[in-house]
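Researcher: Sequence of SAM-dependent MTase RsmB/NOP-type domain-containing protein follows. Predict its structure.
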Amino acid sequence: MARHGAARNTAARRTAPVETNSLFEEFYQKQQVVGEDSWDEFMTVLQKPMPVVVRLNRTKPHWQELQVSFAMDVRWSELPWFPGAWRCDAKDYDDSLRSQCSALNKSYALRFQEAASLVPPLLLEVKSTDLLLDLCAAPGSKTLECIELMREESDSLEGVVIANDADAERCFELLPLITRKARHPGCAVVLGNGAKYPAQFWGPGDQLL
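Model: Prediction complete. Tokens:
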């Protein structure tokens, strides 16, 4: 019998993407996110397949060699604001390239991560000695990125990352799998409601944040 996570992933793969949804369009038209004259253009952009984005693990030995390989492949272009992050148009991401990237992902040489997801850890300007709390951590890409940024700055391993999520399945199955890849001793996985976190106090003015 398949585990819950595996069953859910299989179902997701079998479900074809929905390109039109009248309720979706009605909701966002009422929000007036764009002007009426730009609505058709807005929907056209939303219906385009998103590019594949990968982030190389710069804490792995010889990651520069992988960087050179990506630079030599015309299908990939590096994100100018994130060294080591590469994008490939969906139309160019064929089965052969998918297999190669999947193998590199399993070996933790790279991670699949949307470009927008790369931004928050950069804005945090994570330091190697930080105590970092991720209240909604699953599936763990940003958590892992933060750990890598810590290790890039220093090998001291003083920093602490607490990865919290309210979904029990994602917390017990997915997050430990992700955080084990980092092999960072100061990493803990916690199951809890982010809106009510934390619930423990050690004294006047002491609160875990």
